[in-house]
Structure to design on (800 residues):
C-alpha cells in the first residue's frame, strides 16, 4: 500500500473529519478497496476512532473491505432489469464464477457485485464488466460473454 | 471570461453569443446521456467528427454531444439542424450517409426515421413522433439543444435570466410568494409544497443557512434526475441560487450519488463555469448577494435520500435518519436552518420565476400543478423518460407514449413510486396521475419511477424484490423497520419458494401495519406499500402460491419446471447447446430430455426452442411427467420416413 498517496488524499481534504466519506471514496477509487491499514491511517490523521470509520465504511455500499479482482462485474438489479430477468442472469454468473455478490474469486479474476440501477433501463437486463455496458442479456449470453475475460 | 456584473451585461452577453451563431447553420446533436452512451453514442460522435472533416464540412457544421431527450429505447438519438430531423438508433456505419445526404444535399435518410408501427407513417421531426407528441417537455425539452459542458448553450436559451429577474426585480419575500403561488410540490416523492418549505427556512432566525440539492436518486429503475443533472446542470444551479436568495442562504451543496460519474462531472463543471461568469461566488451579478456551492458525493445508501440522513452524510457520518421535528428548516446541516429540495424541484424554479406562477398553474390538476418527469421502464415498447402534465391518465402514458407491451403480451400492472410505492392494476389505468390520486389507489408518485409489468411478472415476487431491497437498505436504527421488513421479506421468500402456509397473508398484513405506524422515517413507514398493494389487487396470486404451490406467471423458479414434450421435440439440439447447466440430454435424432435434478430453471430452453416446435413447456403446481424411455427417443424424420415407405413400395 502506498502510504504517501493516501496521506496526500487526506491532506487534500484538509484532514477534516467531516470529509471522511469523501476521503474514503477517493481511497476506494485509487485502490479499488479499503485495506485495514488505510483505515488506520485515516483514523490517525483525522483523530477519529477506527470504530467510527468502520461504521461509515460498512454503512455505505460504495466501499469494499475486500480486494477486487482483475475484472469487476456489476449486475444491475434495478426494478426494470428485475422484471426482464436479471435474477436469472445473476444466478448463471454466480454459478460460473463460483462467487456471490460482494466476493472476489480465489484467482482474483472476477469480483461480483449487484447494483441497484445503472440507469440504462432500455437495455435491461444489463451487466457491466470493467465499466463496459453489456445489455439485453439472456442467461446463456451472459455465460458466453464471461468466456472473453482472462 | 470576465465577470458579468449586471442584468444588462447578461443580456449583452447573450446577444453576443447569439450573434456568433447562425440559426441556419447545419448542426448535429447526438444524445450523450448515459443510456445512449451505453449503446455507443460516443462512437457515433467520433464518427461524425471524422466524417465531417473528411467531407470538408468542418467550418460549416457544429457537432455536439447533448443531454438526454428521453427516447432511450431508440438510442443513440441524433438530431440534425436547422431542420431538426430526428434519426434513431444511429450507428457509426450510418454516419457517412447522413453527412453526405442530409448535411450536404439536404435530403432525409428515410431508413433512420421513426416509423409508426400501425400507420407505417414516417416522422421526420422529433415533435412528429408519438412518443414526444404526447408529452409536455418543459424541463427536459431543452436537453437536446444543450451541450452540458457549454454554458453558452444554456445562456443562448435565456439561461440565468430568471436569476437576474429575481435578484433585481423581486424581494426574497416576493420570490417565496411566487413559488407558493405556483403550488409547486416537491418532486422527490413527498409532494410537500416547496414555497411553504422555503418560507419555514426563511423565517427561522439565524445568520448561517444552507440550501441543498438532493441528487441522491436511489429509486432502482428511475433516472429522471440523472438526465437533468447530466443534460442541463445549469438549470438546477439557477434554481438553487434563486432559492438561496429567497431563503437567505450563502452556502449550498449538491449531493450527488457517486454511481453517476457523468452527472458528477457535468455538475462540477457547471459550478465552476457559473463561478467564472459571476452567477456564483461573491456579489452575484453585482447584486451584493453571495453564494458558494460545493458538490458532495453520496456513497451508495438509499436511505440518504431521506433529508435528515442526507444531512448526516454531508457531515461525514453514516446516514441514519433522525426523528422530525425538528425539521431541517429549523435545525439542519450543522444545526442550522437548511432547505433541501430534489433536482427536478429546483429545475422548475427558473421556469416559475421567468414565466410566472400563473403559467405554471396552467399545467396539472387542482392540487398538483406543473409537469412531472417519469421514467417509463420494464415491459414497455418505448422505454425512456417521459414528461407530462400532472393529471394525464396512466393509460395514456402506457399506451400513447409507451406504445404498450412488447411481444403481444398482456398488461398486468404499473408499479409507481419505487420501493415505497405500489402496483396499480388494469382496472385503475384511467386514473389521473397526480400526488393524491395515486395515493387513493394504494401507490404513490414517489420520484417518478414507473415500471410496467406484463403477464410474465409475478406480483408476489415483485413484493419480495422490493422488500429485499428495503431490507438491505434499512439503516437498522429503529426496530420496527429493521425487524418488520426482515420478517415480511422472510414470509414472502417462503411463499415464492413453495413454503407458504395458510395465514401468511394475514400475518403479512399485521406486520405491515405495525411497520407502517411505528417506523422512524419514510423508508420504514412506506416499506409495507409494495406488500399491501399487491395483496390488495393480486390476492389470487398469493393464494395460488400458498395453496397450490403454483406461480401463475411461471416466474418463481422454485415452483416452475421445464419439460420437453416428446411429441413436439424436433431434436434440433438448440436447447441442449444453450442450456447453462448441462441438464438436457439428447442427440441429432434423439428426443431431448431435461434432467429435473440438474436443471437450474434459468428458462433458456423455453426461450430458444423454435416456435415451430414449441416443445419446451413450463409447468407449475403440477407434477412433471416422467422422462420418455431411452429406446423411444429416436426421432423418425418425416422426409426420411417417406423415402423409406417409397423404397418399400417399390
Amino acid at each position: 500500500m502506498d502510504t504517501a498517496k493516501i496521506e496526500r488524499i487526506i491532506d487534500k481534504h484538509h484532514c477534516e473529519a467531516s470529509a471522511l466519506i469523501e476521503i474514503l471514496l477517493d481511497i476506494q477509487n485509487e485502490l479499488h478497496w479499503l485495506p485495514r491499514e488505510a483505515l488506520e491511517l485515516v483514523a490517525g490523521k483525522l483523530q477519529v476512532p477506527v470504530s467510527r470509520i468502520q461504521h461509515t465504511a460498512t454503512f455505505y455500499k460504495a466501499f469494499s473491505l475486500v480486494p477486487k479482482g482483475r475484472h469487476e462485474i456489476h449486475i444491475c438489479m434495478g426494478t426494470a432489469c428485475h422484471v426482464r430477468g436479471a435474477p436469472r442472469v445473476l444466478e448463471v454468473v454466480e454459478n460460473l464464477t463460483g462467487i456471490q455478490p460482494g466476493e472476489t474469486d480465489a484467482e482474483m479474476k472476477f469480483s461480483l457485485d449487484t447494483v441497484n440501477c445503472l440507469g440504462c433501463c432500455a437495455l435491461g437486463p444489463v451487466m457491466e464488466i470493467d465499466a463496459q455496458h453489456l445489455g439485453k442479456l439472456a442467461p446463456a449470453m451472459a455465460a458466453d460473454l464471461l468466456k472473453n475475460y482472462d | 471570461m470576465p465577470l458579468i456584473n449586471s442584468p444588462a451585461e447578461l443580456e449583452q452577453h447573450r446577444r453576443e453569443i447569439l450573434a456568433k451563431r447562425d440559426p441556419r447553420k447545419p448542426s448535429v446533436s447526438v444524445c450523450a446521456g448515459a443510456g445512449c452512451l451505453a449503446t455507443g453514442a460516443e462512437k457515433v460522435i467520433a464518427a461524425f467528427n471524422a466524417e465531417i472533416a473528411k467531407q470538408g464540412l468542418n467550418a460549416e457544421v457544429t457537432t455536439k454531444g447533448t443531454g438526454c431527450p428521453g427516447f432511450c429505447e431508440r438510442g443513440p438519438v441524433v438530431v440534425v439542424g436547422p431542420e431538426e430531423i430526428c434519426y434513431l438508433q444511429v450507428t457509426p456505419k450510418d454516419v457517412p450517409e447522413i453527412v453526405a445526404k442530409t448535411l450536404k444535399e439536404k435530403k432525409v435518410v428515410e431508413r433512420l426515421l421513426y416509423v409508426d408501427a400501425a400507420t407505417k407513417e414516417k416522422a421526420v421531426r422529433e415533435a412528429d413522433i408519438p412518443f414526444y407528441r404526447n408529452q409536455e417537455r418543459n424541463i427536459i425539452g431543452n436537453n437536446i439543444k444543450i451541450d452540458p459542458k457549454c454554458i453558452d448553450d444554456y445562456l443562448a436559451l435565456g439561461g440565468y435570466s430568471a436569476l437576474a429577474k429575481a435578484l433585481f426585480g423581486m424581494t426574497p419575500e416576493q420570490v417565496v410568494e411566487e413559488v407558493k403561488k405556483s403550488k409547486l410540490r416537491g418532486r422527490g416523492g413527498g409532494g410537500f409544497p416547496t414555497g411553504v418549505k422555503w418560507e419555514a427556512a426563511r423565517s427561522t432566525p439565524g445568520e448561517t443557512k444552507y440550501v441543498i440539492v438532493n441528487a441522491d436518486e436511489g429509486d432502482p429503475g428511475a433516472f429522471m434526475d440523472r438526465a437533468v443533472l447530466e443534460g442541463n446542470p445549469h438549470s438546477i444551479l439557477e434554481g438553487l441560487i434563486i432559492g438561496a436568495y429567497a431563503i437567505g442562504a450563502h452556502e449550498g451543496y449538491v449531493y450527488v450519488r457517486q454511481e453517476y460519474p457523468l452527472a458528477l462531472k457535468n455538475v462540477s463543471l457547471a459550478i465552476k463555469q457559473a463561478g467564472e461568469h459571476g452567477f456564483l461566488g461573491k456579489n452575484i451579478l453585482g447584486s451584493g448577494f453571495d453564494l458558494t456551492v460545493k458538490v458532495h458525493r453520496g456513497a451508495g445508501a438509499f436511505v440518504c435520500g431521506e433529508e435528515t440522513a442526507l444531512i448526516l452524510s454531508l457531515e461525514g457520518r453514516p446516514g441514519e435518519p433522525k426523528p422530525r421535528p425538528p425539521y431541517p428548516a429549523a435545525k439542519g446541516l450543522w444545526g442550522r436552518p437548511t432547505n433541501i429540495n430534489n433536482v427536478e424541484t429546483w429545475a422548475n424554479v427558473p421556469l416559475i420565476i421567468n414565466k410566472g406562477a400563473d403559467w405554471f398553474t396552467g399545467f396539472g390538476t387542482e392540487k398538483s400543478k406543473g409537469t412531472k418527469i417519469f421514467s417509463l421502464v420494464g415491459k414497455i415498447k418505448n422505454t425512456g423518460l417521459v414528461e407530462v402534465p400532472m393529471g394525464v391518465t396512466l393509460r395514456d402514458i402506457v399506451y400513447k407514449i409507451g406504445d404498450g407491451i412488447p411481444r403481444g403480451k398482456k398488461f398486468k400492472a404499473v408499479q409507481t413510486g419505487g420501493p415505497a410505492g405500489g402496483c396499480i392494476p388494469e382496472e385503475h389505468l384511467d386514473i389521473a396521475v397526480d400526488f393524491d390520486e395515486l395515493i387513493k389507489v394504494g401507490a404513490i408518485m414517489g420520484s417518478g419511477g414507473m415500471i410496467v409489468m406484463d403477464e410474465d411478472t409475478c406480483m408476489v415476487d415483485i413484493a419480495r424484490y422490493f422488500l429485499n431491497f428495503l431490507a438491505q437498505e434499512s439503516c437498522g436504527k429503529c426496530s420496527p423497520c429493521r425487524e418488520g421488513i426482515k420478517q415480511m421479506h422472510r414470509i414472502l421468500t417462503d411463499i415464492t419458494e413453495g413454503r407458504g402456509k395458510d395465514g401468511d397473508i394475514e400475518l403479512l398484513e399485521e406486520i405491515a401495519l405495525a411497520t407502517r405506524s411505528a417506523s422512524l422515517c419514510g423508508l420504514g413507514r412506506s416499506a409495507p406499500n409494495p406488500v399491501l398493494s399487491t395483496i390488495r389487487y393480486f390476492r389470487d396470486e398469493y393464494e395460488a402460491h400458498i395453496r397450490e404451490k403454483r406461480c401463475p406467471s411461471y416466474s418463481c423458479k422454485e415452483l416452475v419446471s421445464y419439460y420437453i414434450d416428446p411429441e413436439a421435440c424436433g431434436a434440433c439440439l438448440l436447447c441442449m447447446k444453450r442450456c447453462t447447466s448441462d441438464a438436457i440430454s439428447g442427440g441429432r435424432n434423439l428426443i431431448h430430455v431435461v434432467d429435473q435434478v440438474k436443471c437450474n430453471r434459468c428458462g433458456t430452453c423455453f426461450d430458444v426452442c423454435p416456435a415451430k416446435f414449441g416443445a419446451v413447456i413450463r409447468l407449475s403446481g403440477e407434477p412433471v411427467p416422467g422422462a420418455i424411455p431411452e429406446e423411444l427417443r429416436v426421432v423418425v424424420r418425416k422426409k426420411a420416413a417417406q423415402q423409406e415407405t417409397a423404397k418399400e413400395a417399390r
In short: Chain B touches chain A through 59 residues (CB under 8 Å). The mean pLDDT of chain B is 94.
